[in-house]
Amino acid sequence: MARRKAGPCFRGDDGLEGYAPVLRLMVERFHGDDERLAAFVEALPSHVAARLKADWWWQAHRGQEPPEGDWAVWLLMAGRGFGKTRAGAEWIRAQAREAADARVALVGGSRDDVVKVMIEGPSGLIRVAAAAGEELEWRSSLGTLAFPGGAKAFVYSAEAAEALRGPEHHFAWADELAKWPEHGADRCWDNLMMGLRLGALPRCVVTTTPKPAPLLKRVMAIEGIATTGGRTADNVHLPDAFVAWVRETYGGTRLGRQELDGELIGEIEGALFTRALLERARVAGGSEIGRVVIGVDPPASESGTCGVVACGVLGDGTLAVLADASVGGASPERWARAVAAAADVWGADRVIAEKNQGGDMVGQVLRQVEPALPVKLVSASRGKVARAEPVAALFEGGRAKLAGCFPELEDELSGLLIGGGYVGPGKSPDRADAMVWAMTALMAAMGREPRLRLLR
User: What is the dihedral sign for C-alpha 368, 374, 380, 381?
Assistant: First the structure.
Protein backbone atom coordinates (compact mmCIF):
# COMPACT_ATOMS: atom_id res chain seq x y z
CA MET A 1 0.00 0.00 0.00
CA ALA A 2 1.29 3.44 -0.89
CA ARG A 3 2.47 5.61 1.94
CA ARG A 4 -0.11 8.24 2.78
CA LYS A 5 0.56 11.91 3.17
CA ALA A 6 -1.08 13.79 6.00
CA GLY A 7 -3.99 15.85 4.71
CA PRO A 8 -5.42 19.09 6.10
CA CYS A 9 -6.60 17.31 9.24
CA PHE A 10 -5.96 17.43 12.99
CA ARG A 11 -5.89 21.21 13.03
CA GLY A 12 -6.11 23.20 16.19
CA ASP A 13 -9.88 23.61 15.90
CA ASP A 14 -10.26 19.81 15.99
CA GLY A 15 -9.04 19.72 19.57
CA LEU A 16 -6.56 17.02 18.51
CA GLU A 17 -3.45 19.12 18.02
CA GLY A 18 -1.66 17.30 20.84
CA TYR A 19 -2.23 13.95 19.17
CA ALA A 20 -1.43 15.02 15.62
CA PRO A 21 2.29 14.11 15.43
CA VAL A 22 1.77 10.72 17.08
CA LEU A 23 -1.29 9.93 14.99
CA ARG A 24 0.49 10.68 11.73
CA LEU A 25 3.50 8.58 12.74
CA MET A 26 1.51 5.56 13.94
CA VAL A 27 -0.98 5.53 11.08
CA GLU A 28 1.84 5.62 8.53
CA ARG A 29 3.70 2.92 10.44
CA PHE A 30 0.73 0.52 10.45
CA HIS A 31 -0.37 1.00 6.84
CA GLY A 32 -0.47 -2.41 5.20
CA ASP A 33 -1.11 -4.15 8.55
CA ASP A 34 -4.86 -3.80 8.96
CA GLU A 35 -5.11 -5.76 12.21
CA ARG A 36 -2.48 -3.72 14.05
CA LEU A 37 -3.91 -0.49 12.68
CA ALA A 38 -7.43 -1.41 13.84
CA ALA A 39 -6.13 -2.33 17.30
CA PHE A 40 -4.22 0.96 17.51
CA VAL A 41 -7.27 3.03 16.56
CA GLU A 42 -9.57 1.20 19.02
CA ALA A 43 -7.09 1.83 21.87
CA LEU A 44 -7.29 5.61 21.37
CA PRO A 45 -9.61 7.81 23.45
CA SER A 46 -13.10 7.55 21.96
CA HIS A 47 -13.25 11.12 20.63
CA VAL A 48 -9.82 10.76 18.99
CA ALA A 49 -10.71 7.36 17.46
CA ALA A 50 -13.98 8.75 16.12
CA ARG A 51 -12.21 11.69 14.50
CA LEU A 52 -9.54 9.47 12.98
CA LYS A 53 -12.10 7.03 11.58
CA ALA A 54 -13.88 9.91 9.87
CA ASP A 55 -10.70 11.21 8.33
CA TRP A 56 -10.00 10.63 4.66
CA TRP A 57 -6.27 10.97 4.09
CA TRP A 58 -5.29 7.62 5.57
CA GLN A 59 -8.25 5.66 4.15
CA ALA A 60 -7.74 6.55 0.47
CA HIS A 61 -6.47 3.68 -1.65
CA ARG A 62 -4.14 3.96 -4.59
CA GLY A 63 -5.58 6.01 -7.42
CA GLN A 64 -7.79 8.12 -5.15
CA GLU A 65 -4.97 10.33 -3.95
CA PRO A 66 -4.40 13.63 -5.77
CA PRO A 67 -1.28 13.52 -7.95
CA GLU A 68 1.70 15.63 -6.99
CA GLY A 69 2.85 18.57 -9.08
CA ASP A 70 1.30 21.71 -10.51
CA TRP A 71 -1.31 20.02 -12.69
CA ALA A 72 -4.39 21.90 -13.91
CA VAL A 73 -6.55 18.84 -14.69
CA TRP A 74 -6.61 15.57 -12.75
CA LEU A 75 -8.35 12.71 -14.56
CA LEU A 76 -9.46 9.92 -12.25
CA MET A 77 -10.72 7.24 -14.65
CA ALA A 78 -11.64 3.94 -13.02
CA GLY A 79 -14.13 1.09 -12.83
CA ARG A 80 -17.48 1.26 -11.10
CA GLY A 81 -17.33 1.14 -7.33
CA PHE A 82 -13.65 2.14 -7.30
CA GLY A 83 -14.41 5.21 -5.19
CA LYS A 84 -14.25 7.97 -7.79
CA THR A 85 -17.10 9.98 -6.29
CA ARG A 86 -15.64 9.79 -2.78
CA ALA A 87 -12.26 10.93 -4.06
CA GLY A 88 -13.79 13.84 -5.95
CA ALA A 89 -15.88 14.94 -3.00
CA GLU A 90 -12.98 14.72 -0.56
CA TRP A 91 -10.70 16.69 -2.88
CA ILE A 92 -13.28 19.47 -3.27
CA ARG A 93 -13.88 19.54 0.49
CA ALA A 94 -10.13 19.85 1.10
CA GLN A 95 -9.89 22.79 -1.31
CA ALA A 96 -12.84 24.48 0.35
CA ARG A 97 -11.20 24.15 3.78
CA GLU A 98 -7.93 25.58 2.53
CA ALA A 99 -9.41 28.50 0.57
CA ALA A 100 -12.21 30.24 2.44
CA ASP A 101 -13.18 32.37 -0.55
CA ALA A 102 -13.13 29.52 -3.07
CA ARG A 103 -15.77 29.37 -5.80
CA VAL A 104 -16.29 25.82 -7.01
CA ALA A 105 -18.06 24.49 -10.11
CA LEU A 106 -19.82 21.12 -9.79
CA VAL A 107 -20.59 19.81 -13.27
CA GLY A 108 -22.40 16.66 -14.37
CA GLY A 109 -24.29 15.36 -17.35
CA SER A 110 -27.52 16.77 -15.93
CA ARG A 111 -28.53 18.81 -12.90
CA ASP A 112 -30.12 15.68 -11.45
CA ASP A 113 -26.80 13.84 -11.73
CA VAL A 114 -25.00 16.59 -9.83
CA VAL A 115 -27.57 16.67 -7.04
CA LYS A 116 -28.15 12.93 -6.59
CA VAL A 117 -24.52 11.83 -6.95
CA MET A 118 -22.10 14.66 -6.27
CA ILE A 119 -24.04 16.46 -3.52
CA GLU A 120 -26.64 14.21 -1.89
CA GLY A 121 -25.28 10.78 -2.85
CA PRO A 122 -23.79 8.19 -0.45
CA SER A 123 -20.29 9.44 -1.31
CA GLY A 124 -21.35 13.00 -2.14
CA LEU A 125 -20.22 16.22 -0.52
CA ILE A 126 -22.89 16.42 2.17
CA ARG A 127 -22.20 12.88 3.44
CA VAL A 128 -18.41 13.12 3.45
CA ALA A 129 -18.55 16.48 5.19
CA ALA A 130 -20.95 15.16 7.83
CA ALA A 131 -18.62 12.21 8.51
CA ALA A 132 -15.90 14.73 9.30
CA GLY A 133 -18.16 16.77 11.58
CA GLU A 134 -18.91 19.52 9.06
CA GLU A 135 -22.36 20.76 8.05
CA LEU A 136 -22.86 22.14 4.56
CA GLU A 137 -25.69 24.48 3.59
CA TRP A 138 -27.43 23.13 0.52
CA ARG A 139 -29.93 25.40 -1.24
CA SER A 140 -31.53 23.28 -3.90
CA SER A 141 -33.62 26.10 -5.38
CA LEU A 142 -30.50 28.19 -5.99
CA GLY A 143 -28.19 25.31 -6.84
CA THR A 144 -25.59 26.44 -4.29
CA LEU A 145 -23.67 24.57 -1.60
CA ALA A 146 -21.97 26.60 1.14
CA PHE A 147 -19.03 25.29 3.18
CA PRO A 148 -18.42 26.24 6.84
CA GLY A 149 -15.35 28.36 6.05
CA GLY A 150 -17.12 30.48 3.45
CA ALA A 151 -16.32 28.66 0.20
CA LYS A 152 -19.28 28.10 -2.12
CA ALA A 153 -20.03 25.55 -4.85
CA PHE A 154 -22.42 26.00 -7.77
CA VAL A 155 -24.35 23.40 -9.76
CA TYR A 156 -23.97 23.21 -13.56
CA SER A 157 -24.83 20.62 -16.19
CA ALA A 158 -23.80 19.75 -19.72
CA GLU A 159 -27.46 20.08 -20.69
CA ALA A 160 -27.23 23.83 -20.02
CA ALA A 161 -23.67 24.56 -21.15
CA GLU A 162 -24.30 28.31 -21.61
CA ALA A 163 -24.80 28.70 -17.84
CA LEU A 164 -21.02 28.30 -17.53
CA ARG A 165 -20.37 31.18 -19.90
CA GLY A 166 -19.36 34.03 -17.60
CA PRO A 167 -18.95 32.60 -14.07
CA GLU A 168 -15.38 32.30 -12.75
CA HIS A 169 -14.11 29.60 -10.42
CA HIS A 170 -11.06 28.54 -8.42
CA PHE A 171 -11.81 24.83 -8.63
CA ALA A 172 -14.08 22.45 -10.51
CA TRP A 173 -15.27 18.88 -10.30
CA ALA A 174 -16.56 17.29 -13.52
CA ASP A 175 -18.22 13.93 -12.91
CA GLU A 176 -18.84 11.10 -15.42
CA LEU A 177 -17.46 13.17 -18.28
CA ALA A 178 -17.73 10.26 -20.71
CA LYS A 179 -21.51 10.19 -20.24
CA TRP A 180 -22.22 13.86 -20.84
CA PRO A 181 -24.71 14.39 -23.71
CA GLU A 182 -22.71 14.78 -26.91
CA HIS A 183 -24.67 17.78 -28.19
CA GLY A 184 -23.45 19.96 -25.30
CA ALA A 185 -20.37 18.20 -23.94
CA ASP A 186 -17.64 20.12 -25.78
CA ARG A 187 -19.29 23.49 -25.29
CA CYS A 188 -19.78 22.80 -21.59
CA TRP A 189 -16.13 21.78 -21.14
CA ASP A 190 -14.85 24.80 -23.05
CA ASN A 191 -16.97 27.21 -21.01
CA LEU A 192 -15.85 25.53 -17.79
CA MET A 193 -12.15 25.77 -18.67
CA MET A 194 -12.42 29.41 -19.79
CA GLY A 195 -13.98 30.34 -16.46
CA LEU A 196 -11.47 28.38 -14.37
CA ARG A 197 -9.19 31.37 -13.81
CA LEU A 198 -9.42 32.47 -10.19
CA GLY A 199 -6.53 32.10 -7.76
CA ALA A 200 -2.88 31.24 -8.26
CA LEU A 201 -3.50 27.63 -9.40
CA PRO A 202 -7.02 26.91 -10.70
CA ARG A 203 -7.66 23.17 -10.87
CA CYS A 204 -10.25 20.67 -12.06
CA VAL A 205 -10.75 17.04 -11.10
CA VAL A 206 -12.53 14.79 -13.60
CA THR A 207 -14.01 11.55 -12.28
CA THR A 208 -15.38 9.11 -14.82
CA THR A 209 -15.85 5.53 -15.90
CA PRO A 210 -14.18 5.10 -19.29
CA LYS A 211 -16.14 5.19 -22.50
CA PRO A 212 -14.84 6.05 -25.99
CA ALA A 213 -16.54 9.44 -26.00
CA PRO A 214 -14.97 12.22 -28.09
CA LEU A 215 -14.72 14.63 -25.16
CA LEU A 216 -12.96 12.11 -22.93
CA LYS A 217 -10.39 11.41 -25.65
CA ARG A 218 -9.89 15.15 -26.02
CA VAL A 219 -9.37 15.64 -22.29
CA MET A 220 -6.94 12.72 -22.13
CA ALA A 221 -4.83 14.47 -24.76
CA ILE A 222 -4.41 17.66 -22.68
CA GLU A 223 -0.73 18.43 -22.23
CA GLY A 224 0.37 17.97 -18.63
CA ILE A 225 -2.81 16.21 -17.49
CA ALA A 226 -2.40 14.09 -14.34
CA THR A 227 -4.10 10.71 -14.51
CA THR A 228 -4.90 8.07 -11.90
CA GLY A 229 -7.30 5.16 -11.87
CA GLY A 230 -7.94 1.57 -10.99
CA ARG A 231 -10.33 -1.33 -10.93
CA THR A 232 -13.53 -2.10 -9.08
CA ALA A 233 -11.69 -4.84 -7.18
CA ASP A 234 -9.21 -2.27 -5.80
CA ASN A 235 -11.86 -0.98 -3.40
CA VAL A 236 -11.47 -3.25 -0.36
CA HIS A 237 -14.68 -1.83 1.15
CA LEU A 238 -16.91 -3.50 -1.47
CA PRO A 239 -18.58 -6.79 -0.46
CA ASP A 240 -16.55 -9.80 -1.56
CA ALA A 241 -19.69 -11.47 -2.90
CA PHE A 242 -20.41 -8.51 -5.20
CA VAL A 243 -16.86 -8.38 -6.55
CA ALA A 244 -16.87 -12.14 -7.14
CA TRP A 245 -20.22 -12.00 -8.94
CA VAL A 246 -19.34 -9.17 -11.34
CA ARG A 247 -15.99 -10.81 -12.07
CA GLU A 248 -17.65 -14.13 -12.86
CA THR A 249 -20.37 -12.47 -14.94
CA TYR A 250 -18.46 -9.79 -16.81
CA GLY A 251 -14.75 -10.54 -16.33
CA GLY A 252 -12.79 -10.34 -19.57
CA THR A 253 -15.68 -9.03 -21.67
CA ARG A 254 -15.54 -5.61 -23.28
CA LEU A 255 -18.16 -4.35 -20.80
CA GLY A 256 -16.25 -5.78 -17.86
CA ARG A 257 -12.91 -4.37 -18.96
CA GLN A 258 -14.51 -0.95 -19.37
CA GLU A 259 -16.87 -0.80 -16.39
CA LEU A 260 -14.88 -2.91 -13.89
CA ASP A 261 -11.22 -2.54 -14.91
CA GLY A 262 -11.43 1.08 -15.99
CA GLU A 263 -9.98 0.46 -19.47
CA LEU A 264 -10.86 2.78 -22.32
CA ILE A 265 -11.71 0.41 -25.17
CA GLY A 266 -12.55 2.22 -28.36
CA GLU A 267 -13.65 0.96 -31.75
CA ILE A 268 -10.93 1.37 -34.36
CA GLU A 269 -12.20 2.76 -37.64
CA GLY A 270 -11.86 0.17 -40.40
CA ALA A 271 -11.29 -2.77 -38.04
CA LEU A 272 -11.61 -6.18 -39.66
CA PHE A 273 -12.88 -7.62 -36.36
CA THR A 274 -14.99 -4.96 -34.64
CA ARG A 275 -15.57 -5.06 -30.90
CA ALA A 276 -19.28 -5.47 -31.51
CA LEU A 277 -18.61 -8.47 -33.76
CA LEU A 278 -16.44 -10.13 -31.13
CA GLU A 279 -19.06 -9.57 -28.41
CA ARG A 280 -21.76 -11.11 -30.61
CA ALA A 281 -19.53 -14.11 -31.21
CA ARG A 282 -19.03 -14.93 -27.54
CA VAL A 283 -20.57 -18.17 -26.29
CA ALA A 284 -20.54 -20.00 -22.98
CA GLY A 285 -18.68 -23.26 -22.47
CA GLY A 286 -20.22 -26.67 -22.17
CA SER A 287 -20.49 -27.59 -25.85
CA GLU A 288 -19.09 -30.82 -27.25
CA ILE A 289 -15.78 -30.38 -29.07
CA GLY A 290 -14.66 -32.35 -32.09
CA ARG A 291 -11.42 -31.76 -33.97
CA VAL A 292 -8.93 -29.41 -32.24
CA VAL A 293 -6.02 -27.56 -33.84
CA ILE A 294 -3.32 -25.51 -32.08
CA GLY A 295 -2.12 -22.52 -34.11
CA VAL A 296 1.45 -21.34 -33.48
CA ASP A 297 3.08 -18.09 -34.61
CA PRO A 298 6.72 -18.29 -33.39
CA PRO A 299 8.43 -15.05 -32.33
CA ALA A 300 11.25 -13.48 -34.31
CA SER A 301 13.26 -13.11 -31.07
CA GLU A 302 13.06 -14.17 -27.44
CA SER A 303 11.68 -10.75 -26.51
CA GLY A 304 8.62 -11.26 -28.70
CA THR A 305 5.39 -13.16 -28.09
CA CYS A 306 4.79 -16.67 -29.37
CA GLY A 307 1.16 -16.92 -30.38
CA VAL A 308 -0.36 -20.20 -29.19
CA VAL A 309 -4.12 -20.48 -29.72
CA ALA A 310 -6.35 -23.55 -29.54
CA CYS A 311 -9.39 -23.71 -31.84
CA GLY A 312 -11.90 -26.50 -32.28
CA VAL A 313 -15.11 -27.65 -33.92
CA LEU A 314 -18.17 -27.49 -31.67
CA GLY A 315 -20.95 -30.07 -31.77
CA ASP A 316 -23.08 -27.96 -34.12
CA GLY A 317 -20.23 -27.57 -36.60
CA THR A 318 -19.34 -24.06 -35.50
CA LEU A 319 -15.63 -23.25 -35.16
CA ALA A 320 -14.53 -21.72 -31.87
CA VAL A 321 -11.50 -20.26 -30.12
CA LEU A 322 -10.98 -22.45 -27.07
CA ALA A 323 -7.87 -21.03 -25.39
CA ASP A 324 -5.09 -18.47 -25.71
CA ALA A 325 -1.92 -20.05 -24.33
CA SER A 326 0.48 -17.52 -25.85
CA VAL A 327 3.73 -16.72 -24.03
CA GLY A 328 5.95 -13.65 -24.19
CA GLY A 329 9.67 -13.23 -23.66
CA ALA A 330 10.25 -16.97 -23.83
CA SER A 331 13.13 -19.09 -25.11
CA PRO A 332 12.37 -21.55 -27.94
CA GLU A 333 12.24 -24.41 -25.44
CA ARG A 334 9.79 -22.57 -23.20
CA TRP A 335 7.34 -21.61 -25.95
CA ALA A 336 7.61 -25.11 -27.39
CA ARG A 337 6.61 -26.51 -24.00
CA ALA A 338 3.65 -24.11 -23.95
CA VAL A 339 2.57 -25.50 -27.32
CA ALA A 340 2.95 -29.10 -26.12
CA ALA A 341 1.00 -28.34 -22.95
CA ALA A 342 -1.87 -26.78 -24.90
CA ALA A 343 -1.94 -29.75 -27.27
CA ASP A 344 -2.09 -32.14 -24.32
CA VAL A 345 -4.82 -30.22 -22.47
CA TRP A 346 -7.08 -30.01 -25.53
CA GLY A 347 -6.18 -33.35 -27.10
CA ALA A 348 -5.12 -31.58 -30.28
CA ASP A 349 -5.36 -33.44 -33.58
CA ARG A 350 -2.88 -31.11 -35.24
CA VAL A 351 -0.39 -28.33 -34.44
CA ILE A 352 -0.05 -25.80 -37.25
CA ALA A 353 3.12 -23.73 -36.91
CA GLU A 354 4.32 -20.95 -39.20
CA LYS A 355 7.93 -21.50 -40.25
CA ASN A 356 8.66 -18.11 -41.82
CA GLN A 357 10.57 -16.90 -38.76
CA GLY A 358 12.63 -20.03 -38.10
CA GLY A 359 12.29 -22.46 -40.98
CA ASP A 360 12.52 -26.17 -40.15
CA MET A 361 14.03 -25.24 -36.77
CA VAL A 362 10.48 -24.52 -35.57
CA GLY A 363 9.46 -28.14 -36.12
CA GLN A 364 12.68 -29.43 -34.60
CA VAL A 365 12.21 -27.43 -31.42
CA LEU A 366 8.62 -28.61 -31.04
CA ARG A 367 9.51 -32.28 -31.60
CA GLN A 368 12.46 -32.12 -29.20
CA VAL A 369 10.02 -31.16 -26.46
CA GLU A 370 7.39 -33.71 -27.51
CA PRO A 371 8.39 -36.20 -30.24
CA ALA A 372 4.81 -37.34 -30.80
CA LEU A 373 3.48 -33.81 -31.36
CA PRO A 374 1.42 -33.83 -34.62
CA VAL A 375 3.19 -30.82 -36.14
CA LYS A 376 2.58 -29.41 -39.60
CA LEU A 377 4.70 -26.47 -40.75
CA VAL A 378 3.19 -23.84 -43.01
CA SER A 379 4.62 -20.86 -44.89
CA ALA A 380 2.91 -17.48 -45.11
CA SER A 381 2.61 -16.37 -48.72
CA ARG A 382 0.09 -13.61 -47.95
CA GLY A 383 -0.02 -10.87 -45.34
CA LYS A 384 -1.57 -11.40 -41.92
CA VAL A 385 -4.69 -9.38 -42.71
CA ALA A 386 -5.26 -11.16 -46.03
CA ARG A 387 -5.05 -14.51 -44.24
CA ALA A 388 -7.46 -13.26 -41.58
CA GLU A 389 -10.19 -12.06 -43.96
CA PRO A 390 -11.80 -15.50 -44.59
CA VAL A 391 -11.82 -16.11 -40.83
CA ALA A 392 -13.46 -12.73 -40.23
CA ALA A 393 -16.12 -13.74 -42.76
CA LEU A 394 -16.86 -16.82 -40.64
CA PHE A 395 -17.33 -14.63 -37.55
CA GLU A 396 -19.58 -12.27 -39.52
CA GLY A 397 -21.72 -15.20 -40.62
CA GLY A 398 -21.99 -16.64 -37.12
CA ARG A 399 -19.95 -19.73 -38.06
CA ALA A 400 -17.02 -18.89 -35.76
CA LYS A 401 -17.24 -18.09 -32.04
CA LEU A 402 -15.23 -17.20 -28.96
CA ALA A 403 -15.74 -19.86 -26.30
CA GLY A 404 -14.87 -17.50 -23.46
CA CYS A 405 -13.01 -14.21 -22.99
CA PHE A 406 -9.57 -13.62 -24.48
CA PRO A 407 -8.73 -9.93 -23.85
CA GLU A 408 -5.23 -9.86 -25.36
CA LEU A 409 -6.22 -11.87 -28.42
CA GLU A 410 -9.33 -9.71 -28.92
CA ASP A 411 -7.25 -6.52 -28.68
CA GLU A 412 -5.03 -7.81 -31.49
CA LEU A 413 -7.97 -8.90 -33.65
CA SER A 414 -9.54 -5.45 -33.32
CA GLY A 415 -6.26 -3.90 -34.46
CA LEU A 416 -6.34 -5.65 -37.86
CA LEU A 417 -7.60 -3.24 -40.53
CA ILE A 418 -9.69 -3.98 -43.59
CA GLY A 419 -7.47 -3.87 -46.66
CA GLY A 420 -4.26 -4.45 -44.72
CA GLY A 421 -2.40 -2.90 -41.85
CA TYR A 422 -2.20 -3.36 -38.08
CA VAL A 423 -2.52 -0.60 -35.49
CA GLY A 424 -1.63 -2.51 -32.33
CA PRO A 425 -1.35 -3.36 -29.55
CA GLY A 426 2.30 -4.28 -30.02
CA LYS A 427 4.17 -4.42 -33.28
CA SER A 428 2.75 -7.71 -34.51
CA PRO A 429 -0.57 -9.55 -34.00
CA ASP A 430 1.06 -12.83 -32.95
CA ARG A 431 -1.96 -14.19 -31.07
CA ALA A 432 -4.32 -13.23 -33.87
CA ASP A 433 -2.09 -14.86 -36.46
CA ALA A 434 -1.94 -18.08 -34.45
CA MET A 435 -5.74 -18.10 -34.26
CA VAL A 436 -6.00 -17.56 -38.01
CA TRP A 437 -3.66 -20.50 -38.74
CA ALA A 438 -5.74 -22.80 -36.50
CA MET A 439 -9.08 -21.62 -37.91
CA THR A 440 -7.82 -21.92 -41.49
CA ALA A 441 -6.71 -25.51 -40.88
CA LEU A 442 -10.11 -26.39 -39.43
CA MET A 443 -11.89 -24.75 -42.37
CA ALA A 444 -9.79 -26.65 -44.88
CA ALA A 445 -10.36 -29.97 -43.11
CA MET A 446 -14.11 -29.42 -43.18
CA GLY A 447 -14.19 -28.28 -46.79
CA ARG A 448 -15.61 -24.94 -45.68
CA GLU A 449 -12.93 -22.53 -46.78
CA PRO A 450 -14.70 -19.58 -48.49
CA ARG A 451 -13.90 -19.08 -52.17
CA LEU A 452 -14.16 -15.84 -54.15
CA ARG A 453 -16.50 -15.84 -57.19
CA LEU A 454 -17.25 -13.18 -59.74
CA LEU A 455 -20.75 -11.72 -59.88
CA ARG A 456 -22.40 -12.18 -63.28
Answer: positive
Using a pLDDT cut of 70, give the percent of the chain over it. 82
pLDDT digits (tens, 9 = 90+) for 141-162: 999 999 999 999 999 999 999 9
pLDDT of residue 1 exceeding 60: no
pLDDT at 132: 81
Report whether 265 contacts 212 (CB < 8 A): yes
pLDDT at 233 over 90: no
Phi and psi of 297, rounded to 5°? -120, 95
Average confidence score pLDDT of the chain: 84
237: which residues sit within 8 A by CB, 6+ positions away? Answer: 83
Mean pLDDT of 50-78: 79
The per-residue pLDDT for 361 is 83
User: Among the ranges 27-36, 147-156, 295-304, which has the highest mean pLDDT value?
Assistant: 147-156
SS (H, E, C) the chain: CCCCCCCCCCCHHHCCCCCHHHHHHHHHHHCCCHHHHHHHHHCCCHHHHHHHHCCCCCCCCCCCCCCCCCCCEEEEEECCCCCHHHHHHHHHHHHHHHCCCCEEEEEECCHHHHHHHHHCCCCCHHHHHHHCCCCCEEECCCCEEECCCCCEEEEEEHHHHHHHCCCCCCEEEEECHHHCCHHHHHHHHHHHHHHCCCCCCCEEEEEECCCCCHHHHHHHCCCCCEEEEECHHHCCCCCHHHHHHHHHHHCCCHHHHHHCCCCCCCCCCCECCCHHHHHHCECCCCCCEEEEEEEEECCCCCCCEEEEEEEEEECCCCEEEEEECCEECCCHHHHHHHHHHHHHHHCCCEEEEECCCCCCHHHHHHHHHCCCCCEEEECCCCCHHHHHHHHHHHHHCCCEEECCCCHHHHHHHHCEECCCCECCCCCCCHHHHHHHHHHHHHHHHCCCCCCCCCCC
According to DSSP, the residues that pair with 153 across neighbouring strands are 104, 145
The β-bridge partners of 324 are 309
Edge-to-edge strands of the sheet including 203-208?
A: 137-139, 144-146, 152-157, 103-108, 171-175, 203-208, 73-78, 226-230
Contact 403, 322 (CB under 8 A): yes
Residue 236 has pLDDT above 80, yes or no: no
Domains in the chain with CATH codes: 12-53 (no CATH), 73-234 (3.40.50.300), 275-445 (3.30.420.240)
